[in-house]
Each structure stands twice: as structure tokens, then as C-alpha cells.
Amino acid sequence: MTNMDNDHIPVYSTKSIIQKSETEGIQNQDKTGTKANKQKPPPNEKKRTPDMGVRPGAQEEYSKWKQSFWKRNGVPGPEPTPFLGNLGQIRKQAIVSPPAEQKDMLTNAVDEHWKFMRNTLTATFSSGKMRLTSPAVAACCDKLVENIKEQSKDGKEVIEIKHIFGCFTMDVIASTAFGIDVNSQKDPNNEFVKQAKKAFDISFTTPFVMLLIIFPNLASLWNTLSNWKVTKNAFTDVFNFFQKVTLSVMEERKSGNDQNRKDFMQVMVNSHNEAVDKEDKENMVDYKEGDSTWRNRGLTVDEITANSFLFFLAGYDTTANTMSFMAYNLAMNPECQEKCIEEVDKVLGKDKPNYDNVLKLQYLDNCMNETLRMYGPASVLNRHVQEDCKIGGYNVPKNSILSIPTYAMHHDPEYWPEPEKFDPDRFSPEQKAKRHPYAWLPFGQGPRNCIGMRLAYLEAKGAIASILQRYKLVKCEETEDPVIIDVSTGLLRAKNGIKLKVVPRA
Ligand code: HEM
């Protein structure tokens, strides 16, 4: 996605996205798709002088002109409010790229540069690389269980589960993306932990980010608006810290220390000389042998730094929230938790989780998928339209931004009967076969989908399985029922956290 220069378009109808064919033949549709787009804003009736005042209703017409773009193009939807359009309705579904000035982040890159980096980084998350990374994830699972043991005091203490999982995902990213071992639960004053938390707080709690949610096309002003300097400078400080960490880790690797470490950092460092395996090629965007955008060079130091940092921003809270809601769902549905425990005992026994045994936890997989349906952290997807096109019979002009409301789609009773019910069997092969594949999009879709999905499954399933090997997750008086959702920061999370008891298994 890029910084945009056109209308921000909320697409409301799940049906219009999912069942394109059903919406063909709409009335009032401009056949060429151009005439309607060339309409001008309402003209002033006459040249106004300062004392003439404004024609009744004209102010409102102007204030809604941008927001009524789709209405004028025949696309049905809710009535926009002046200036903010339908923000009230889509706020629940907003996700935003971090406001980094770093052009080398995958999320900020475009065209050939994005393609080169996406293909290079895709290799970082291949199943082969995941296998190499799984001992590092298993070590973090051990720390997680140890921290739970210390906090739970034989199941008597109430645990803020989101905090525990936040520390876990922080440890995983530190270890896999930066090659640094930390225990953020036990050592909150560690410099890496402090800076990482700062980066995250800046990205997701400042008014600037809220503004970006409201007006995504303002992102291009990031470098020029001085009243955001404080935030920008703070963010740059944090980025500089991560840059120093990356450089010193790379230096250490070059000097021979830790060269055999199998983490993303090493894969990125080796990117110019590593072999490309068959699976990498299959997952790459438009991969062609000898393509000039691919492997004509390795990743630069700036690209490695920017993307290690991005992995942290994109993978920390998303995965921690998913795990928290998963634990919540299992505590609220003990019969489902029993099934998971049975499966974990059968498949893992007392073994540590790794890429292959975690893949075999099919019921736990269904529980994670159902959790992502109910509480997927990214509740909206955005696309920048590159060419004039038709979607579901509607004309969509070049340079529009489409917002796809996944939260709304995941709660549409037409596709998900009793949407508020936790029912992991919705993801059985039979149920899945009956559903449109795009009815469930927690990781997005297409070439720009989530690159870290495999890691997210390995982390979340591995950690929950490690807990269930020893403990049960139990609802207690402090557990909110139903849990209150907060979307004010752009990412969906539990407003008051999630509190549970973690009781040792008999
Ligand atoms: C449960 C956890 C996660 C969820 C629900 C999630 C969801 C998403 C979504 C919805 C997108 C946008 C996709 C689209 O527009 O089609 C995305 C992009 C991305 N995600 Fe994730 N994500 C998760 C974990 C991770 C992790 C662990 C990492 C890395 C360590 C990661 C790295 C990224 C990156 C780099 C992109 C941008 C890809 C690009 O622009 O080419 N994510 N993620």
C-alpha cells in the first residue's frame, strides 16, 4: 500500500465483495465508468462576496462531497456525516501502517522495490526456515511456562494473560529477528525491551496515528508537518536504537561469533548467497528465473534494519492479542479446551513444540482460526487501486483506496450463523468447503498478504500447547463476560485486558 491521493472508500456490503456476480447489473451505473468520476464538486451559484453568505444546504453538500463519492457512483451504503464520512462505522475496522519514515520497510515499499524485498523476505518465512527457527520459539515457550508458574501460585492468582503473552511475543521477535535473547517478563528494564515498548506505544497510541486512521492520505505529510515533530523525533530515536542493535549483531556475525544461529537476521544477512528452494519460488510474487528484480543483490543494511523493526511492529501485538483471545475462548468453552488437551497429549506428549508437531494439532488450529474470525486484530484491509476497474459490477477508479471490513465480514450471519458463538468446527474441512474462501481474511489475501503467518501459527499454537501440557485455563470472577473490545488504537484488542486463572492439571 502506498500513501494515497484520492478518496478513502469504505466498502460496506460483505455481499458486494464476496459475491461479485450477484451484484452485476446495478442501476444508475455509468456504463463507461468515466463520466461519473468526472463530475465536479457542486459549483458556487454565483461568485460569492464575503457578505453573501452560503446557500442553505450548500455547506453540507461541500462537506460531504468527497464522502458521497460512492453514492454518486451508484454504490449503496450508509449516509456519510460531514467531513468524517462513515468513519464512525469503519473505525472498528481500521489498521494502519506504522508512521515510519523508513522507505525500506516492506509495508512502505512499492513496485519493483517491494517485489524484490517481498521475494527476498518470503524465503525468511518458508517452512524450511521455520523448522530452523522453531528451537528459538520453543525456548521462549519454556520461559513463558516458567513465568506462568511463578505468577499463578498453584492456580490461586488471577493472571493478566495479555501481559504474559506480550512478553512472550516480544521474546520471540527479539530472538528470531534480532538474534537477542531476552526475558521481557523477568527483565523489563532490559534496553531492548524498553525501546521496543516505546516504539510500540508511539506507533499505536499517539494522536498522529489516529489521524492516519482518519485520513490515510495524510501519511505523505509525515516529513513536513512540524507539530508532529515530537512523535517523529521519538520514533526516530527508537529506530536509531534498533539500527545500532542490528549493526552490532551483524558485526558480531561477520566476526565469526554466532554464525550458525538460525534466525531471520542470519537469513537476511545471507540473502545474497543463499540457495532458493522450490517452496520459496512457489510463494514468490511473479518469480522468474533471471528476473532483474530478484537476487541481483543481497539486502542492504538499511533494508535489514527496517524490516527487522517492521517484523516487531507487525508481529508483536497482533500475535499476543490472538493468543490472549484464544486463551479466553478456551477458558469460556471448557469442552473445547478438553479436546485441545486430548490432542496435545496425543500429538506432543511431553515433547517441546516444533514446526512439524504443531502442524499436526488440527483441532487447536481450528480454535485459532475461529478466534481470528471473532477477534482478528486487523479488522480492516486496505488496497490502493492501481488501474480503473470493476468490482462486483461497480466502477472503481484508479487511485481510490478500498477498505475491506473484515471484522464485519467475519460477523456476517449469512456466512457465519450465530456469529458470536465460538465454534471451532466451522473450520472442519467439510464446513470450509461450503464457504467462500474470502469469507475469512484475518491475514489478508493476495501477494500483499501477511508474510509472517507461519510464524504466527508456530508461536500461538506452540505457546498454547506448552501451557496445556501442564495447565488449564479457567474463567474466574475477574474474567469479563462478554469481553469488551477496543479498536481506538487501530488494532482490535480487549479493552480491559483478559484476566484468567491458570490451574495446574491434575
Ligand atoms: C496473528 C498474528 C497476525 C495477524 C492476524 C496478521 C495480520 C496481517 C494482515 C491482515 C496484514 C495485511 C495483509 C493484506 O493487506 O492483505 C499483514 C501484513 C504483514 N504482516 Fe502480519 N499478522 C500477524 C503476524 C505477523 C507476524 C508474526 C509478522 C512478522 C514477524 C508479520 C509481518 C507482516 C508484514 C511484514 C506484513 C506486510 C506485508 C507486505 O506489505 O508485503 N505479521 N499481517
TrEMBL record:
Biased composition (Polar residues): 13-36
Keyword vocabulary terms for this entry: Endoplasmic reticulum, Heme, Iron, Metal-binding, Microsome, Monooxygenase, Oxidoreductase
GO cellular component annotations of the record: endoplasmic reticulum membrane
Subcellular location: Endoplasmic reticulum membrane; Microsome membrane
Topological relation to the membrane, as annotated: Peripheral membrane protein
GO molecular function, one term: iron ion binding
Pfam families documented for this protein: p450
CDD domains found in the cross-reference section: CYP3A-like
Function of the molecule: Cytochromes P450 are a group of heme-thiolate monooxygenases. They oxidize a variety of structurally unrelated compounds, including steroids, fatty acids, and xenobiotics.
Protein name as annotated: Uncharacterized protein
